[in-house]
Amino acid sequence: MSEIIIEARGAYEVWTINGEARRNAMSKAMMAELDANVSRVSSSRDVRVVVLRGAGTKAFCAGADLKERATMKPDEVPIFLDGVRRIFRSLERSDCVFIAFINGAAFGGGTELSLCCDLRVIDPAAEMGLTEVKLGIIPGAGGTQRLPRLVGKGVAKELILTGRRVGAEEAVKIGLATRVGSQEDAEKLAASICENAPIAVSLAKHAIDEGAHLDLDAALQVEQAKYAQTLTTEDRVEGLKAFAEKRPPVYRGR
Ligand code: COA
Q1: Does one domain contain both 189 and 201?
Q2: Predicted local distance difference test score (pLDDT) of residue 52
Q3: Which side of the chain, N or C, has fewer Cβ within a 10 Å radius?
Q4: 251 falls within a domain
C-alpha cells in the first residue's frame, strides 16, 4: 500500500497522505515516501506545484505516529527526528511550490509539515496547533523556529506554550494559514501558479525565503542576484513578446 497517493494534474500534483486509520500520522514508512517524492519533484522540471493533503476528512496529519513512537527504542527517536528535519528542509528548499491543503486536524508535526510548505489553505472545519507541550515534549521538527517567523514571537509563544488548537478563521487572521478554502480552491491556486514562468516562480520563492531574516540591504542583494538570473531566460523574452502580441505567454522553463 502506498503511504502517499500521487495524482498527476499536468504541471501540478496532488499528494494524499494515505493513513486515514491513524489520522495520517507521520510513520517511518510515510516519511520515506515523502522523502522519495520530494527528491523526485525537486529534480524534475515537469512538476511545478504540489498540493499536499491527508486522506479522509478528519485529519491533514495528526503529527508523529504516537503508536509507532511507543515501539521505538530511546536511541531510535533522535535518528528518526533527524530524518524528519532533513526531509522537511528539503521540501522547503525545493524549486517546487508546496501548498498544504489542511483538510482536517493538523497537530504537532502535522502543523510543522504545513509550515514547511509555501502556502496553507485550510478547510473551514479544520484545526491546527503545536500541541507538543501537552505531551511533555516541544515541537521538534522546526515548529519553535518557523511559527514565530510566520506569525511573530508573541503569537507563537501563546500558541506553543498553551498547546492551544486554532480553527480556520483564526488561523487566517493570525497569518498561520493563507486562506480558508476547499481542495478545489487549493488546486485553483496551484493552476494559477503553473501559468507563470517556472524559473521566475522558483526564484521568487527562494528570494522571499532567503531574504526574510537578513537586514534589508543584504536581503535586497539576494533579490538582485535572483532577478539577474531571470534576465538570461528564454521565458523572459517570451513574456515580453506575448505582451506585445496581446496573447497568453507559452513558458518553457528555459
Ligand atoms: N499517532 C498514531 N495514531 C493516531 C494519532 C497519532 N498521532 N492520532 C490519532 N491516531 C489514531 C487513534 O489512536 C485512533 O486509533 P484506533 O482507532 O486504533 O483507536 C485513530 O487514529 C482515530 O483517532 P480518534 O482520536 O478516534 O479520531 P478523531 O477523528 O476523533 O480525532 C485527532 C482525530 C487527530 C483530532 C485526534 O486523534 C488527536 O488529537 N490525535 C493526537 C494528535 C496529537 O496530539 N499530535 C501531536 C503529536 S506530537
Answers
A1: no
A2: 98
A3: N
A4: no
pTM score, whole prediction: 0.96
Q: DSSP E strands: which ranges in the chain?
A: 4-9, 12-17, 49-54, 59-61, 97-102, 105-107, 119-122, 127-129, 166-167, 179-180
pLDDT score, position 224: 98
175 and 224 assigned to the same domain: no
pLDDT for position 1? 81
170 and 221 both lie in a single domain: no
Same domain, 189 and 71: yes
Residue 211 lies in domain: 196-245
Model pLDDT, residue 45: 87
Mutate to test the pocket of ligand 1, among 23, 115, 138 (most ligand atoms within 8 A of CB): 23
Could you please report the per-residue DSSP string of 35-50?
HHHHHHHHT-SS--EE
How far, in Å, is the centroid of ligand 1 from the Cα of 104?
Answer: 12
